[in-house]
Amino acid sequence: MDTILLLTVLVVIFALTFDFINGFHDTANAIATSVSTRALPPKVAVIMAAVMNFIGAITFTGVAKAITKDIVDPFALSNGSVIILAALLAAIIWNLITWYYGIPSSSSHAIIGAIAGSAIAAAGFGVLNYTGFVKILQALLLSPFIAIAAGFLMMSLFKVIFKNANLYRTNKGIRYLQICTAALQSFTHGTNDAQKAMGIMTMALIAGGLQSGDDIQGWVRVSAAVAMGLGTSIGGYKIIKTVGGKIMKLRPVNGAAADLASASVIFSATLIHLPVSTTHVISSAIMGVGAAQRVKGVKWGVARKIIMTWIITMPSAAAMAALIFYILDIFF
């Protein structure tokens, strides 16, 4: 019993660490457009994002419940705490590697792939909840394409609205709008991304016999929201540089269109209780906006590099989690 309690405590600590890292890793995506267009100074943008992330994180729990039960059944895991701990360590290591190199990799892909890889290493492929897992994979796969379309349509609409407007006045006004869109972006980021840590902590509590249902406890919600808010306050300026400038040259109207498009996709996913990658959605929305503006204006070489990272994240995190599980299983 002491070992189970120790493992549960370790899972909670590392889940909050993952959430903290997720905060500074993915917050860059939420505020990249507003910082790169100089609508907001970096420090102000990061503080605003931290507050809005916290508010978003404590508002919803549907995605957390999906993470708790849709990948694997926590009630059926005999060594669930070790499985979850291995998954968290793998996802944290992957996030730190991609953050160090300034690559906007997906924390969502990392943790979902890591949970699946660790569980398969422990109990074989039969342990996966295929109905729920496939549903999550579909959301992760389709959301970038939906975001590209949303970005393209939003920018096309903006081009019609501001067709005859004075460029200087329009840019000045749009910068004020971007303050609102960046806040909305950060709020929606909190509603989806922070819930992943909540779901993982709940899985650990169930696996450790400390909880009998899949409800998200109040202290879990608040602690995850605080961890993400604190992580957000640090910011990830390397990734801001990649997302905000290397995909395409952003102007205020482009940034606002990308923010509105990606926020609508992320929040829609939250409402139907599906985890999506905010990294994927925001980067894809920027690509869609760029394509609507001028296809050749999008730096597709950088975009291809980002997409390749998306593709390798889940299997890499899964393999890493499986290896870590085998190591931890020796000791526990």
Task: Please tell me about this protein's structure.
With 332 residues, the chain is an all-alpha fold. The chain has one domain (2-331). 80% of the residues lie in helices and 0% in strands. It has 12 helices and no strands. It has helices spanning 2-36, 42-57, 62-70, 80-100, 107-123, 130-161, 167-207, 218-234, 237-246, 252-271, 278-293, 300-331. α3 (62-70) crosses α7. The radius of gyration is 19 Å and the shape is elongated. The protein starts with a helix and ends with a helix. The mean pLDDT is 84. The chain crosses the membrane at residues 44-64, 76-97, 109-128, 140-162, 219-240, 252-272, 307-328. It is a multi-pass membrane protein. This is Inorganic phosphate transporter. GO terms for molecular function: phosphate transmembrane transporter activity. It is found in: Membrane.
